[in-house]
Amino acid sequence: MEVKRASVLGFCFGVRRAVEYAEKALEYYSGKKVYSLGPLIHNEIVLQNLKDKGLEILSEDDLDRVEPQSVVIIRAHGVSPSITKILEDKNCTIINATCPRVNANQITVQKASAKGKIIILTGDSNHGEVKGIAGYAEGEFILLQNEEDARALKEGSGEAVLLSQTTFSPVQFEKISEIVGQKYKNLKINNTICPATKERQDSLVELCKNVDGVLVVGGKNSANTIRLFQTAQKNCAHAAHIQSAEEIPQEFFAFKRVGITAGASTPDVIIEQVEKALSD
To answer: How far apart are CA 271 and CA 217, in angstroms?
Structure first.
């Protein structure tokens, strides 16, 4: 069997940075409570490894459980200013692992809304990044999850800024941008999708041309991994979304050429295990 990797796959810069921050915090602050607000990344295997080392994961609704003067890691998705304020009032040591691209979105929203501009964001309503960015909007904030939301949007006369969740579908963003542009004449469009998102998609489409089946490796609750799987299904006769080598469907071992891609929260070691299982 020939195993081919996508040219772009696995940990993105922001995720790798967040995991490194957590590893260092657990080592440096040994003996103190170390929390992560929400899952640090969307990968259960990585999270379990960090939990075994002492990391306690809390939702933003459980802030009352954070002990004063403890250590709190802000995950790559970021949080709203109100969350940060609560932690500061508890005299916590805050380790900000927010992805720089997400942070740039937060700053853009804060500055634009302070000037009275309408904020329009494309993204998933339940995604942590979207919730955090929304917290920086001081005025009108509109979330568009798909083209249907954009078509339902009423025409506006004020100044508006359109930007996106960093892991949103580039294709969807372009379609939504065109629709919104027809409804807001004074609109500034900022394509804030991380380039790595498009690069992963493009490399996967190319990979699908040369293999019999594609394995998409990553967390079941990872938005960008799910989108990779959807692309694989459209472009390859056989596609499977797995979290580990143990989940490889039996049919893949009979293929001559198998492709591997992985979400932005999938560590190198899991990709290597999947490749080794196929090769063996």
So the answer is: 7
CB 9 within 8 A of CB 261: yes
Contact (CB, 8 A) for 244 and 46: no
Query: What's the mean pLDDT in 204-224?
Result: 93
- CA distances for 133 relative to 118, 126, 169, 176, angstroms: 14, 12, 18, 19
Is the pLDDT at 42 greater than 90, yes or no? Answer: no
Is pTM, for the whole model, over 0.70?
yes
Q: Is 251 a catalytic residue?
A: no
The residue from 27, 67, 129, 246 that is catalytic is 129
| Cα distance between residue 86 and residue 144, in whole Å | 29
Cβ contact 77:38 at 8 Å: yes
Do 149 and 121 contact (CB within 8 A), yes or no? no
Provide the pLDDT for residue 34.
Answer: 93
Q: Which of 199, 210, 174, 185 is nearest to 262 (CA)?
A: 199
